[in-house]
């Protein structure tokens, strides 16, 4: 895990401790998050997960905003309990009052869509292509069936694959 990110998590905790005049248990921090989310706070596990790809591509803003955003979730949970709304007034208070940041719910980082393999299935009625994801293709191989909405025949794998 990058030292800058770890240092920023610690700095956010120290700010919160100075503001609330109390100590907070430090979370476990993971750099194993993929997909569209920049960060996730697992409240009951006291765990922060961050997306290394989005961190690399948006380092300055990520360190300032995303890390504080996720730490604020854990601080709000420890201060106010588990019955608060994720981006409710308690979380917003911490973002504005402690970190002096805008309480943005979502990031605006550009996310490149990667190409995906599609498995081409066809129906006997008109030969129309039905591109299946790898996950759906695996389900078919385990016995699940998918049907054409027009003729109700089982869709059959054509043997073709393509990148989309």
Automatic annotation (TrEMBL):
Residues 7-158 form the SprT-like domain. It holds the Pfam family SprT-like. Keywords: Hydrolase, Metalloprotease, Protease. InterPro entries: SprT-like_domain. GO terms for molecular function: metallopeptidase activity. One of its GO terms (biological process) is response to stress. This is SprT family zinc-dependent metalloprotease. It comes from Stutzerimonas marianensis.
């Amino acid at each position: 895990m990058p030292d800058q990110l770890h240092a920023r998590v610690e700095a956010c905790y120290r700010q919160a401790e100075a503001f609330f005049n109390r100590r907070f248990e430090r979370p476990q921090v993971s750099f194993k998050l993929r997909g569209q989310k920049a960060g996730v706070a697992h409240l009951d596990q006291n765990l922060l997960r961050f997306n290394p790809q989005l961190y690399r591509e948006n380092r300055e803003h990520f360190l300032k905003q995303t890390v504080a955003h996720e730490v604020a979730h854990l601080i709000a949970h420890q201060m106010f309990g588990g019955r608060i709304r994720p981006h409710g007034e308690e979380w917003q208070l911490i973002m504005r009052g402690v970190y002096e940041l805008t309480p943005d719910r979502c990031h605006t980082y550009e996310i490149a869509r990667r190409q995906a393999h599609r498995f081409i299935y066809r129906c006997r009625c008109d030969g129309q292509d039905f591109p299946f994801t790898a996950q759906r293709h695996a389900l078919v191989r385990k016995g699940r069936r998918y049907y054409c909405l027009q003729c109700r025949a089982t869709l059959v794998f054509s043997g073709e694959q393509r990148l989309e």
